[in-house]
Structure formats: structure tokens, C-alpha cells
Amino acid sequence: MKTLEVDLGNRSYPIHIGTDLIDQPDLFSACKKATSIYIVTNTTVAPLYAERLTNTLEKLGKPVRTIVLPDGESYKDWKNLQLIFDDLLKFGADRQTMLVALGGGVIGDMTGFAAASFMRGIRFIQVPTTLLAQVDSSVGGKTGINHPLGKNMIGAFHQPVAVIADLNTLKTLPARELSAGLAEVIKHGAIADAEFLNWIETNTSALLACETTAMEHAVLRSCEIKSAVVSADEREGGIRATLNFGHTFGHAIEAGMGYGEWLHGEAVGCGMVMGAELSRQLNFITQDEVNRLTHIIQSMNLPIAPPKFGAQRYMELMQVDKKTEGGQIRYVVLEKIGKAQIQSVPDLQVIETLTATGAT
Ligand SMILES: NC(=O)c1ccc[n+]([C@@H]2O[C@H](COP(=O)([O-])OP(=O)(O)OC[C@H]3O[C@@H](n4cnc5c(N)ncnc54)[C@H](O)[C@@H]3O)[C@@H](O)[C@H]2O)c1
Ligand SMILES: O=C(O)C(=O)C[C@@H](O)[C@H](O)[C@H](O)COP(=O)(O)O
Ligand SMILES: [Zn+2]
């Protein structure tokens, strides 16, 4: 097992990465002070892992209950968040209750937001079971739900007290979901570590085959990159916004298509192709570099052609992006491979060329 730390002073927490971690009660030692433990999961993950995790947590001598939500991005909303509060109140949860998010990014984001707001804030642990959640969403404390008009529009920064990433849970993940997670892995290389991007390119087959050693490196290096950024800029005053590479376009695709039609990682993959092309048009990177990044994304079985909403519709959808300031949309661009920065692009024509091509 490898352990690293997200350094946030007295709110620092460990990220444990390894195999069969959900069977190890010691890793859940933060529950020692808890009066009760609630696992929050969904209808797909519950039959796979909830019983094993319950057995582990019961060894800590606390009452353990499970809340099972419907599965899917389209359920990341108020109505389903309310189901968590309903159960917490019905079964007598209190301020010392610990929530444990068992699932992908949807469960992690919703459980985190429930923890941020229940009784004005209780503690939670992330047990990410998708690649995307292990490399990205379980780390950094962005929690929340979607609004029909925009992704993750309602939420809070609320850090978990531990992240426990069990690589064996990835063995049951559908191939399409694995590819979606690889989009965020590629993002980490593109924005912060050119060497890591080389490694990703060389190890495409091992990553697509979900080989444990490749997964371990992908999760570990991604968590190192993300935790360094989060430690430096927890609330996105500056450098954290670079973790949004591909997301201004990607979130527009998700909302525009209807949540769940394109997976988050798929939209981000395609959004990174658009972001790379924007970087070229701003004279930061070369056409060869755009082609290379596009090829890496495509070779992970991710879509590279944006849906044809038209530039106006993209602009409308992107206006609500959280990086927008005074009505000016701000994009993450690649200054070079391995380094990103934020740019405003006042010229609608540039966006027109980016959104004109495409499949759907
Ligand atoms: N908070 C953040 O920093 C952050 C970062 C990136 C993404 N996100 C959010 O995360 C969400 C996407 O997360 P995701 O890609 O994990 O999607 P997801 O949570 O919908 O999970 C994907 C699918 O895999 C299933 N699943 C989960 N674990 C499984 C397993 N081990 N075996 C088989 N099936 C399994 C789920 O039930 C679901 O059907 C989006 O809502 C996105 O906005 C948040
Ligand atoms: O942690 C971050 O910061 C990120 O931007 C990571 C992204 O991969 C993630 O999708 C995040 O939820 C997007 O944040 P948002 O603020 O644009 O909703
Ligand atoms: Zn993302």
C-alpha cells in the first residue's frame, strides 16, 4: 500500500492506495470517535462492495447503516441529496456521525455535500470505486450537485478525513467507465507533468487492460499532482483552476446533451481536444502537439468530436462556468505540454471554429 497526504494544516488527510483496502478496519481509524457510520452508495455498487465494507466497519464496534441511491449522473440533484438527509434524520444521526462515500464521483460529490451541510458539517471518508474517483474526484473537497442549467452549480468545499482507494474494485468497472477515468489521468499529465504524459502514452494497453501495476502508478501520480495543487490553492483562487482543463467545454457538453448522455470523462476528453486546439490558436502549442494529445485521448477510446450545438449555444452553456468573471468566459489553455494557464478569449470567431466541427 502507498500512502500520501493532502497537506491542509489541521485538516490534512491521508490517501491510501492499494489492493483489498476495503477489508482493513485500521484504515478507517478516523471512525473511532464516531457515534455511528453511514455508508452512502448506489444500486450498482451496493451489491458489489457494501457488505464487505459493512463487515469491516462493524469491527470498529459502531452501528453501521447503508443508504442506497439510484445510479447515474442524472440523479446528482436536490431530490436525491434529500434522500441522504431523510435517512440520517430518520435513524438518529448526529454531529459525530461519519459518512462513508462508497462509489464513483457522483456518490462522492453528493455524500461530501451532504456531509458539508448536515447539521452544518460532519466528517466523511471517501472510498472511491471508479478510476475517475480514485484519480480525481475523491481528492480535494469539491462537493456538490448539478443544476439543469449548469454542472456542479450548488456545492461546498468540504474535505474528507481520509481517502481509501482500493485498486481491486476497478476490476468490476465497465470498460467505458475506465476510459472516462483515463481522461482525468491524461489531464494531469497535460497540465502538470510532461513525463507522466509520456508514461501514459507508452502504457496505453496496460491502462486499458486495467493492469494493477499500471493502475497503481496512474492513481498515485494523479493523486500526487492533484494533492499538491489542492494544498497550494484549496479554494481555487489561482492554480487550482488549471485542474479544469477541458472542463469549460466538457461541462457545456454534459449539460447540453442532458446529464448522463456523455460521461463526465468523455466530455472532458473531448473538451481537452478543444482546449488543445484553442491553445494552438493562441500560439502556445504546435499542431503536432495538438495531434499528439488528440491521439492519446482517442487511443483511450474517448470521443474527440464535439456535439454540434453551434457556437452561440456553447457560449450560453459556458457562461455559467464557475471561472467566468464579469461575463467573460475564462479557459484553461496549455502554455506547453505539462504546464497550463488561464486565458480569456474575447473573439467569438475562435470559439466558432472550435465548435463548428463535430459528430453528433
Ligand atoms: N469533486 C471533484 O473534484 C470531481 C472531479 C472529477 C469529477 N467529478 C464528478 O464525478 C462524477 C463522475 O464520476 P464517475 O466517473 O466516477 O461516475 P459515476 O459516479 O457515475 O460512476 C460511474 C459508473 O460506474 C459504476 N461503478 C462505480 N464503481 C464501480 C465498480 N467498482 N464496479 C462497477 N461499477 C462501478 C457507478 O455505479 C456508475 O454507474 C461527475 O459528476 C463529475 O462531475 C468531481
Ligand atoms: O478539483 C478540481 O478543482 C477540478 O477542477 C477537478 C475536475 O476534474 C472536476 O470535474 C471538478 O468537479 C470540476 O469542478 P468545477 O468547479 O468546474 O465544477
Ligand atoms: Zn473532471
Give structural notes.
Helix 5 runs parallel beside helix 10 and helix 10 (264-281) runs antiparallel to helix 11 (287-299). Strand 3 (37-42), helix 1 and strand 4 form a beta-alpha-beta unit. The protein has 13 helices and eleven strands. It folds into two domains: 2-172, 3-Layer(aba) Sandwich (Rossmann fold); 175-356, Dehydroquinate synthase-like - alpha domain (Dehydroquinate synthase-like, alpha domain, Up-down Bundle), CATH 1.20.1090. The chain is α/β, with parallel strands linked by helices. 44% of the residues lie in helices and 19% in strands. The strands form three sheets. The chain has a seven-stranded mixed sheet, sandwiched between helices. Strands 7-8 form a two-stranded antiparallel sheet. A two-stranded antiparallel sheet has the order 10-11. The site of zinc ion (ZN) has 5 residues, from helix 10. NAD(+) binds at residues 71-76, 105-109, 129-130, 142, 151, 169-172. It is found in: Cytoplasm.
How far apart are the termini? Answer: 43 Å
Largest sheet: 7 strands, mixed
Instruction: Say what the CATH topology of the largest domain is.
Output: Dehydroquinate synthase-like, alpha domain
Total individual domains: 2
**Bound small-molecule species:** nicotinamide-adenine-dinucleotide, ligand LNCXM5UN, zinc ion
Shape: globular
- Contiguous uncertain segments of 5+ residues: none
